[in-house]
Design brief:
The structure is a single chain. The chain is of the alpha/beta class. The protein contains 11 helices and 11 strands. A hairpin with a 2-residue loop joins strand 1 and strand 2. Helix 1 crosses helix 2. The longest helix is centred in the first third of the chain and has 28 residues. The two termini are 50 Å apart.
């Protein structure tokens, strides 16, 4: 591998000359002698074979070549500062990566808002996001790489707290046969129709939460696909209100008039994947998620 002929220090000195308006000002800013600053830039130009600065009166200005090259160097300098910041954070115990598993019922806008805030406050930690359904959250807790889980329950031997309640409602297309009955619906009425359910992403002990035992069942992998199928008239489903509210407002789907059970509230819990070992970055993301749910 060929080593660079120039150094970050040389580019930083050139940047200081431009920012401060001259060699003397840059030398004072950098706490160096003016001769050392002049030599460093002279050496940089010699190594590159390109003139970088010209004197206009008493002020040093970049040539066109200098402007182009310093723009690229600014990215290198910023990257070096980020590396040093990351190293300092790692010395203090911040994780380089955390695993996050989130049930698909959790409102996506809240998740995106939380991740955006986390990125701004913790720049050195990567997030591995996994979307799960039902027992997929339980399995994620058994994965040593998962630090935070948002799921429908807190398994034994894990620590967690209620994060949010999600309202599910039974819906179908307004022209669906169930509405043609013209009366309050029973569970027997539903069992005779096609039900669309989200597939449990877990594999060891999958659950059928919400399935009525209907003779016809179609299984999908996302809430959005289920909502689209319902809106097209293919079947009925229980779906999170926050997912289908635009379809309800547009009249593309309608709540089913069930005698009971037309709406259900599903709790989602924030669970620590490594009880007693949660790191500062995972703790920060947990606090941000809770704050976003509370409207912060």
């Amino acid at each position: 591998m060929r080593m660079p002929r120039t150094t970050l220090e040389q580019w930083a000195v050139l940047q200081a000359i431009v920012d401060q308006g001259g060699f003397a000002q840059a030398a004072e800013h950098l706490h160096r002698s003016q001769s050392s600053v002049s030599y460093m830039v002279s050496r940089l130009q010699e190594q590159l074979g390109v003139e970088l600065l010209v004197m206009v009166g008493r002020k040093a200005q970049l040539t066109d070549h200098g402007k182009a090259l310093l723009r690229g160097a600014a990215e290198l300098l910023a990257g070096a500062h980020r590396l040093e910041h990351t190293a300092a954070s790692l010395r203090q115990g911040w994780e380089s990566e955390i695993g996050l598993a989130v049930d698909v019922a959790f409102p996506k806008p809240l998740l995106l808002r939380a991740l955006a805030r986390f990125t701004q406050s913790v720049t050195q930690t990567r997030v591995q996001l996994r979307e799960v359904v039902l027992s997929g959250a339980d399995e994620a807790l058994l994965d040593q790489g998962t630090d935070i889980v948002i799921g429908t329950r807190v398994p034994s031997q894990f620590l967690g707290k209620l994060l949010i309640d999600v309202d599910f409602i039974a819906v179908a297309h307004p022209d669906h046969a169930l509405f043609q009955l013209g009366r309050a619906l029973t569970m027997d009425d539903l069992r005779r129709e096609l039900q669309i359910v989200a597939r449990d992403s877990g594999t060891s002990k999958p659950r059928d939460d919400g399935w009525l035992g209907a003779a016809q069942r179609w299984t999908v992998t996302s809430m959005e696909t289920s909502a689209d199928m319902v809106a097209s008239g293919l079947g009925f489903a229980w779906l999170p209100r926050h997912v289908i509210q635009p379809m309800l407002d547009a009249g593309r789907v309608a709540p089913l008039p069930l005698i009971e059970g037309g709406a259900r509230r599903v709790p989602l819990y924030l669970v620590a994947g490594k009880p007693g070992q949660i790191g500062p970055a995972a703790r920060e993301l947990s606090e941000i998620l809770q704050d976003c749910v509370l409207g912060g």
